């Protein structure tokens, strides 16, 4: 809620003086005994308030005032979003440099074959390269030429042709034709350039195409502000599986309430133009429907869902749980110090290795501490150096500075975190996560941990925890993303954690798709283990047990891990892992030099 909406709801009647809202009565002192009027000012630019009545003197931030009424101040969210965006480094793109020639004869013939006229080709500024291929020049909203896509000017023949369509490397992922459309009118969004040309050819001129096919969503981030200003979209992607999946996904990112979709009986818009003609193309576009928001469906209409899957990178969990699945919430439980965070962060390394974006909320540790540990898990013992704290003489471990640069570059685009002074209110967290999903295509979220989150409900602690898990679960389902949630058990005894212990609430277990317990192995545990497991308990440091398994139903399976205190990695007898960043290490001997004290430049004077 912003200040004006707030004033309308809670501070009536009021006047506006410059950039200040000035109600008759102060919401804190109500003017005191003398019913003093107009003493309270709420500043729209600074987001602060003050009461000038001497014995009141209430002052503070709008967020505090809003909280008092159970509302949340919008500007707080804007600040978090800005911080979140600043994590996203400014990308540097290469300007296109291929020489643009007039359309080749072959290209013209090929366009004509696909029912695209020369005047349409001219409108889109289609060109050819020196080999006669078709060039689709892409312009950003400021009309700057930022990307070229190139296509062979004939039917693609498998085996004979290497590629059908490609891009000039390093270009900016904008939408094809975005420079020529009217954002006030419904914009048709297609999967490829030919569909875009086909719609235009048929008479629907407000049309753009995504740049790199359905798997690549970078354009959402790149064009975010522009997309935000558009009034309505009509999505027309290919009618194959990938296209249908992408339509759902794109609609969620752009906002389901401003998206319609076209459902055609042929593969794509160009084929409709080719086979049925331009009227049919227009008919399909005009009959586009909003996404159903009705909650009553016919069971037969429900489509078998493709679930987005990422692997945990741990054979045991991936085998029994089917990896990190989209739409699922997994609860990780276990005593403090049992290794929940350590294990989860280790699986993050594998998510990054799969080039999937993830997010971590760490309610207890600072982001720099999380990074310090994570970096050690990424590099493994081989690249960790020991150094002496010059002040205390204590020996510490750290990643070799040269290696740190390499791994930072390796994971820069894949791991996001929540601001430190971030609110621990679950609604704010979910808004930021939604933004992260929509704009940056983040697919996996680690929430560490449940206890540090709050709601603004005045209910008891346990009900609140149940409510929070419920909110997180609906978020996961709605956007088909994966959440790993750390929850501490209520009771702390030395036994392996039981279901009922999680946060003290059975709701949490009911809501979770999977529940995983992690415990550090104690002597007691080893002593009381069954005979056939005894040895494993004796030989290892940590045990993981699957307590609930919604997809496959297998429960109570155990797996054992050793812990390396230097690398912070947990490992099984399968040994230690290497990741792709290591290919960027030029001089592997760099690690032999453990003297990492800063070298001073040689100085001749
Ligand atoms: Zn007052």
UniProtKB/TrEMBL annotation:
Kindly list the GO molecular function terms attached to this UniProt entry.
Answer: 5'-3' DNA helicase activity; ATP binding; nucleotidyltransferase activity; single-stranded DNA binding
Q: What is its EC number?
A: 2.7.7.-
Q: Which UniProt keywords apply?
A: Nucleotidyltransferase, Transferase
Domain SF4 helicase: from-to ranges: 303-576
| One Pfam family hit | Toprim_2
Top-rank EC class of the record's enzyme: transferase
User: Protein name, please?
Assistant: DNA primase
Its lineage opens with: Bacteria, Bacillati, Bacillota, Clostridia, Eubacteriales
Q: Which gene encodes it?
A: dnaG_1
């Amino acid at each position: 809620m912003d200040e004006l909406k707030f004033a309308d709801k809670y501070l009536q009647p009021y006047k506006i003086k410059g950039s200040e809202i000035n109600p008759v009565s102060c919401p804190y002192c109500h003017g005191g005994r003398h019913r003093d009027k107009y003493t309270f000012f709420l500043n729209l630019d600074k987001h602060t308030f003050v009461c000038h009545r001497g014995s009141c003197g209430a002052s503070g931030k709008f967020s505090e005032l809003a909280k008092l009424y159970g509302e949340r101040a919008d500007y707080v969210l804007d600040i978090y979003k800005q911080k979140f965006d600043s994590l996203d480094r400014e990308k540097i793109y290469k300007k296109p440099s291929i020489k643009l020639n007039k359309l080749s004869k072959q290209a013209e013939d090929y366009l004509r074959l696909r029912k695209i006229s020369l005047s349409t080709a001219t409108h889109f500024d289609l060109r050819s390269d020196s080999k006669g291929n078709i060039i689709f020049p892409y312009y950003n909203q400021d009309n700057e030429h930022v990307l070229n896509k190139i296509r062979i000017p004939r039917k693609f023949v498998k085996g004979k042709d290497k590629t059908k369509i490609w891009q000039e490397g390093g270009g900016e992922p904008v939408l094809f034709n975005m420079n020529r459309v009217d954002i006030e009118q419904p914009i048709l969004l297609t999967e490829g350039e030919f569909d875009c040309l086909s719609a235009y050819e048929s008479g629907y001129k407000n049309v753009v195409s995504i740049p790199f096919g359905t798997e690549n969503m970078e354009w959402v981030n790149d064009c975010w502000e522009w997309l935000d200003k558009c009034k309505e979209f009509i999505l027309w992607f290919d009618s194959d599986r990938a296209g249908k999946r992408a339509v759902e996904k794109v609609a969620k990112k752009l906002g389901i309430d401003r998206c319609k979709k076209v459902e055609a009986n042929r593969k794509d818009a160009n084929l409709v133009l080719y086979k049925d003609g331009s009227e049919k193309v227009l008919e399909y576009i005009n009959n586009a429907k909003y996404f159903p928001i009705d909650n009553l469906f016919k069971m037969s209409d429900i489509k078998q869902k493709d679930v987005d899957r990422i692997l945990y990178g741990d054979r045991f969990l991936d085998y029994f749980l089917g990896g990190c699945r989209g739409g699922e919430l997994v609860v990780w439980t276990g005593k403090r110090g049992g290794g929940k965070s350590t294990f989860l962060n280790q699986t993050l390394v594998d998510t990054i290795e799969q080039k999937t974006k993830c997010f971590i909320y760490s309610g207890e540790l600072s982001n720099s501490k999380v990074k310090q540990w994570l970096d050690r898990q990424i590099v493994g013992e081989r690249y960790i150096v020991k150094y002496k704290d010059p002040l205390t003489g204590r020996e510490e471990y750290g990643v070799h500075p040269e290696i740190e640069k390499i791994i930072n570059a390796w994971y820069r685009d894949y791991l996001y975190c929540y601001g430190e002074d971030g609110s621990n209110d679950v609604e704010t967290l979910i808004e930021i996560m939604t933004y992260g999903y929509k704009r940056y295509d983040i697919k996996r979220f680690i929430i560490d941990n449940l206890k540090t989150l709050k709601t603004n409900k005045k209910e008891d602690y346990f009900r609140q925890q149940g409510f929070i898990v419920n909110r997180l679960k609906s978020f996961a389902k709605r956007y088909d993303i994966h959440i790993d949630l750390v929850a501490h058990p209520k009771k702390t005894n030395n036994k392996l954690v039981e279901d009922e212990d999680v946060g003290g609430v059975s709701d949490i277990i009911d809501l979770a798709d999977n529940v995983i317990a992690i415990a550090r192995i104690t002597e007691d545990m080893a002593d009381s283990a069954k005979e056939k497991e005894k040895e494993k308990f004796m030989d290892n440091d940590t045990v993981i047990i699957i307590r609930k398994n919604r997809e496959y139903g297998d429960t109570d399976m155990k797996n054992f891990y050793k812990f390396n205190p230097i690398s912070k990695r947990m490992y099984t007898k399968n040994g230690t892992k290497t990741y792709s960043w290591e290919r960027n290490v030029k001089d592997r001997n760099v690690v032999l030099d453990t003297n990492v004290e800063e070298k001073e430049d040689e100085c001749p004077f």
